[in-house]
Amino acid sequence: MQHIQGISRQQMRFSSLEDAISADNQVRFIDAFVTFLDLEKLGFAVTSIKIRRSTEL
Q1: Is 57 exposed, middle or buried (0-12, 13-18, 19+ CB in 10 A)?
Q2: Among residues 12, 23, 47, which one has the least CA distance to residue 31?
Q3: Which of 15, 17, 40, 47 sits at 20 to 30 Å (Cα–Cα) from 9?
Q4: DSSP letters along the chain, please?
């Protein structure tokens, strides 16, 4: 019986957005610039969100 040969389905590939963006991409500069900013001094309210685990309910 003939069948179509292709890429094995048993292969897994994990990648992240960090891997997809080249080292010289402009977005890296923007990310570093925004991280450097003191948002509270600029008038933004900085809050943290607490995440409950299902065991804490």
Answers
A1: exposed
A2: 23
A3: 17
A4: --------TT------HHHHS-TT-HHHHHHHHHHHS-TTTTTPPP---PPPPGGG-
Alpha-carbon gap, residue 39 to 41, rounded angstroms: 5
Confidence of residue 56 (pLDDT cuts 50, 70, 90): low
How many other CB atoms are there within 10 angstroms of residue 37's CB atom? 10
For the stretch 3-35, pLDDT in tens is 777 777 777 777 888 888 999 999 999 999 988
The confidence score (pLDDT) of residue 1 equals: 61
